[in-house]
Amino acid sequence: xxxxxxxxxxxxxxxxxxxxxxxxxxLRAAPGLGRQAPxxxxxxxxTSSASFDALVNQAAAAREADRTDEATRLYQEVVRANPDFVxxxxxxxxxxxxxxxxxxxxxxxxxxxxxxxxxxxxWVMLGLCEFETKKYESALVHLKRADQLGIPRQQDFYExxxxxxxxxxxxxxxxxxxxxxxxxFVRQGKESPDFTEAMGLAALRKPLLPSELPPxxxxxxxxxxxxxxxxxxxxxxxxxxxxxxxxxxxPRTPQIHxxxxxxxxxxxxxxxxxxxxxxxxxxxxxxxALVSLAGEYVKRKQYQTALPYAEKAxxxxxxxxxxxxxxGEVLTEGDLDLPRGIRELEVAARLAPWQPQVxxxxxxxxxxxxxxxxxxxxxxxxxxxxKQGEVAVSKPQ
Length: 397
Known about the structure:
This protein is mainly alpha-helical. 70% of the residues lie in helices and 0% in strands. It has three domains: 1-172, Serine Threonine Protein Phosphatase 5, Tetratricopeptide repeat; 186-268, no CATH class; 315-397, Tetratricopeptide repeat domain (Serine Threonine Protein Phosphatase 5, Tetratricopeptide repeat), CATH 1.25.40.10. It is built from 20 helices and no strands. α5 packs antiparallel against α6, α8 packs antiparallel against α9 (175-187) and α14 runs antiparallel to α15 (287-299). Residues 1-18, 28-46 and 393-397 have low confidence and may be disordered.
């Protein structure tokens, strides 16, 4: 079988043969996923169990000999004979994908996910087929589903799936989630120009795919992506040079001072504050810069100083949960307006029900207001969400 990339991107070089082998291992490890004789009463069958097995063997032999047209025809016969045969749909979908028949591949992998909804591989391949046919919203939903189930790390399969997930997260405006995906790769020592470009797009908050990036913007995206990757990998010397380069080349470009401040925060919070304020000179209603400034002043317990930044953040982006959360924190922790602060935190919790830290601050606010039962409920929810996050991070793949 000819060597093809799993996805139409040079990000990785996963060969189809490796995926076929991995899927065969998966079948052996999970009874019920593999070969099933035609089930009586499900649908009309024209083959006996023995002849069905013979047909499956013929299809497998054609596939392994790289006789792809013959293998496709035979697998079509296989799934007609037994529409509940997951292995047949899987291999048919893989052959369709390799032949650029992405619409046919989607149909095959829909059968896989319908028959085995717990199988992350099926959701990944469905998402990748949809990506190729520009059904980006569906592709994002299905790649997220695969990620929740746990994408296997065997071969380069994991990298392909997560890379495309990052691209689609960026396209949909989920920039922080996208940078988190790429940062995980960088921390594992896995970098490439594709990852750098993806990181730059997300960091600059450009809801674009790499193919949609205007050529004149690519240098900026790559420079920002490299700085963010170096920061994620904690290469201190490289980061210093990256930040100097960004400030020299792009002193008036929106988002640059915010990113520089974010990368400086751990080691030099005063310089970070200065950079965020410079961002506001360029972009006065920059929600993330406003939230970051307010949050840093909260850490310093300078609540009156934090308040106008928090107020402006909410005015700039009323549905941004972090803006509501930091305003609520300022008002409650600073004893500036406890009832209003609680209302802001409640809005933040509704906007981001998955966010444990909001629950923690809301619990403290309820306790301060004497609402003991409400405070306890929020503490319980905080612990549940935190544990859920820890399990997701540590879950074996």
